[in-house]
Amino acid sequence: MPPLLAHLALLGLLLLAVGSSATPNTCQHRADQPLMPIFHIIGNITGTGRTLSAEHINDVSAVVMHGGLYHIFHQCCGNHWDHVVSDDLIHWARLPSPLVPGQDPTGVKKSDWYDARGSWDGSLTLLPAEQSPTGKLLPLIVYDILEGKKPGGPQRLGAGAGLGDDPTLAIARGDPDDPYLFSWKKDVGNPLAFEGCPNITGQGCGTFFPSNVWKNGDHWNFLSFGERFETTDPSLHLWRQAAGPKFGPGCPDPHYSNGVPCTEPTHTPYTPQPIVAGGQWFTPIPNQVDGTPPDPKVAGNKMISFSNGWLWQLGTYDADTETWSQTVVNGTANPPGVTNNGGQDGAVQWGVGQFAGDRMLNLFWARGMGWGKFGGGLSLLREINFDPRLLGHSTGGLVANPIAELARLRNGTLANDSSVRLQPGVPHVLGSTAVDGSAASADIVATFTLPDDASTAASFGICVLSDPSTANVGIGVVVNVSAADGSTGQRTASAWIGLCGPATIWGNGYGHRTTGTFQIFKEEREVDFRVLCDRSIVEAFLMGGRAVFSASTNDAFPGSNNQTWDGDLRHGYPTAVQIFAGGVETIASAVAYAMGCGWVDEPWCAKPPCPGITPQGVGQLHHESPSSP
């Protein structure tokens, strides 16, 4: 059989397998749901084909490892938390919601005034036994609550003040012996109390957007808006705002101004703020790329997340004085490390970074991911590492890459094109990626060789979900490389993600170009790309994670004449992968892999044990990296 026919035959078998009755309903056949991802986490799905319904999920709150299982907690439906679990980081199952207004986490109806209007942003900490008030591991959620009216009393906080969250907190405790972290108990003393009612937000007693909790000496801490809160109360109920300097620059205006929170870069001048919706955002500095720990004399020992999980500032925490100072490189403050260029650009936002075991994982709400009237999911899990060569540069010493396990979802090779001589302005289509939607969910790995002449600039990129017959269809990732600096030999790369071709935006306001820069060192002769597309979302990792971009379709295929799905794949949604160069001839090599389903066969688990998910006990496998030195 000719190679192309053989490939098409294999592809047909793969498509039949995807559409079989044994396939999870979270991985719909492309003919029925061409924009519905198959290896990204999405909301709970009921039904099949063109009649399914899906929950719209949003902000990420935590990612932890416990009992040999990985757990992701995120928000759903505008008022509660949801929970997915995996034993391998790539095949997931969804558990019942752990925090829901009006009921216990076990599903028993229970009306609590303090969270009657919602359980929103927060953090989950696995307090190790030596820090726990119980003397054993304590799974602890600290979360924002939207209060109802207290029985026999007035509304304690203003409900219509313009804040997205009323600044009140509550806690819930999990069972340390349960590897699934299935059942949680809301504290009988909720909501939390604050001495002197500190007025950080101007809205009453307390605060919101809490960090993870850690113990130092005789007291426990958490951060909010750069302020430290502390308690010696073993019930963790009564807190006070601690004296001393802020951890980071703080948030000068925590109010929403004209509907825009102060964390958004639309404020001028924009200063990144230590504020996130959840997660372990005051965290140890992650391991280096080779797996070894960083040198605290060089990097510091703790870093703080600015602006919701995509910007991280390295520094040093002094436990004796309860202060934190920013890492300095050659007399200059080290810039924040970027783990998603463009920050909250509409494609991904409200993310989390947290240690799961000894690895720091990072993921976001993929806001613009959409299909039909449904939508919403999470970005790919990224692993953050420290690279000392990048200190003082725009990447701030950090890199972010897809977790290594993701490669195990590859289920076929669509192209393997090596040493392609790209002429300027003449794109090259990779293998059979233009055939029958084969690259709708794909993993592309490519390298582009830099010019031998250090004084010559270069430009190249990849276009996915594209149509070779026309421009401005598909999502492109482009890198423009400068000539080398005469003294250091380094080059600077300016990169962007956006619509393929000259257009800069597509329907519904999405698709604007998101930009970023990174360094290329003198000895580096190639620029590597890793681009993963999954029907309605594209994520790109450049030069080993020095730049990371995300773009999504937002219920409209990028650039296609068919902006909304009409049920006929012939009217849009091409999937070709093209590589291209501009300026000078460039030699490139690329491999494109088809990707499989990222869910277990029974993705909904009403009650553990969950088929396809295997815990490994709770001994030494349940802890995150220590929260204090």
Question: Mind explaining what this structure looks like?
Answer:
By secondary structure, the protein is mainly beta. The protein contains two helices and 40 strands. The strands form nine sheets. It has a six-stranded antiparallel sheet, with no helix packed on it. Strands 29-38-31-32-33-34 form a six-stranded antiparallel sheet, with no helix packed on it. A five-stranded mixed sheet has the order 3-4-5-6-40, with no helix packed on it. A hairpin with a 2-residue loop joins strand 24 and strand 25 (374-378).
Question: Can you give me a brief rundown of this structure?
Answer:
The protein is mainly beta and 629 residues long. It is built from two helices and 40 strands. The strands form nine sheets. It has a six-stranded antiparallel sheet with strand order 28-39-30-35-36-37, with no helix packed on it.
Instruction: Please name the fourth-level CATH homologous superfamily of the largest domain.
Output: Glycosyl hydrolase domain, family 43
Beta-sheet strand percentage? 35-45%
How would you classify the helix and strand content by structural class?
mainly beta
Report the sheet with the most strands, covering strand number, pairing sense and barrel closure: 6 strands, antiparallel
Shape: globular
Helix tally equals 2
Order of the strands making up the biggest sheet? 28-39-30-35-36-37
End-to-end C-alpha gap:
63 Å
Q: CATH topology of the largest domain, what is it called?
A: Tachylectin-2, Chain A
Number of domains: 2
Average pLDDT number:
81
Q: Over the alpha carbons, how many angstroms does the gyration radius reach?
A: 24 Å
List unreliable stretches of 5+ residues. 1-22, 154-165, 199-203, 250-272, 558-571, 619-629
